[in-house]
Input
Amino acid sequence: QVQLEESGGGLVQPGGSLKLSCAASGNFFRIYTMAWYRQTPEKGRDLVSNITNADTVTNYADAVKGRFTISRDKDTVYLQMNNLQPEDTAVYYCNAWATLTWGPVLPKEYWGRGTQVTVSS
Output
């Protein structure tokens, strides 16, 4: 299985910054794409950003382009969040696709438990 543990959430004032981290652990063969999602009671869970395992492709939601930066170091993914605004308030979830064994198997999806980010003055 794959365990994803997020850290770095908290309370920040508008215009501030936070950096989220998510480390994958467990008995897996390979981690593929990793991503950050966020969820609010009003909007549900939406993709914020993702990054491939070769770091060659990154994607961002329009709402965070130019403010958030995703990066990766092997099986740990980061989300640098700058110029945070109240509308960024949400629970942020780490997501990863992974295979547990070598061979022609399809990756499975795994989720972390989430970390709260609150932007408020």
Remarks:
- The chain has a mean pLDDT of 94.
